[in-house]
Amino acid sequence: MEFPAVIIVVSLAVMVRGDSHVTAVCHMEQNKQLSGSSSPKVTGKVTLVQQTIGGPTQITVDLKGLTTNSVHGFHIHNSGDIISRGCQSCGPHYRPDGTQHAAPRDQKRHIGDLGNVMSNSKGEIKTAFIDYLVSLHGNDSVIGRSIVIHALRDDLGGAR
Ligand SMILES: [Cu+2]
Ligand SMILES: [Zn+2]
């Protein structure tokens, strides 16, 4: 299920250290198509670090400006085009293998399905987690795609 986004991504810049250690930083900015005064002004960054090819990726989320104590869907979308039509030009959840929408812990899911993140009493999201499908290497790399935090909660593929 797709939701309207509050903010979207900017870009994924990449720095390479050594042969396989990759760090990518995504600077988040408000969705230009929702830039009315009623829309939260969310800023911050998401940092992705993958130490080895095929290894897990650490994802660190550091955002502010959200509504307080609220749950938001958090995904990697297919395209890095956040300019032309906002969320629409970001395309669907990144899914090179065409699987179903699901939760991060599910075996079959879109690579971009990172579930939900929750804001604290100050409207900040500060969290970090490991993901085993998101990669910064090879054909299925997420570099250059977009990270979207949505206004609403992700249903994680349906009731379960
Ligand atoms: Cu999304
Ligand atoms: Zn999905």
From TrEMBL:
InterPro entries: SOD-like_Cu/Zn_dom_sf, SOD_Cu/Zn_/chaperone, SOD_Cu_Zn_dom. Transmembrane segments: none annotated. Residues 42-157 form the Superoxide dismutase copper/zinc binding domain. Gene3D superfamilies: Superoxide dismutase, copper/zinc binding domain. CDD domains: Cu-Zn_Superoxide_Dismutase (cd00305). The keyword GTP-binding does not apply. Residues 1-18 form the signal peptide. GO terms for biological process: superoxide metabolic process. One of its GO terms (molecular function) is copper ion binding. Keywords: Signal. This is Superoxide dismutase copper/zinc binding domain-containing protein.
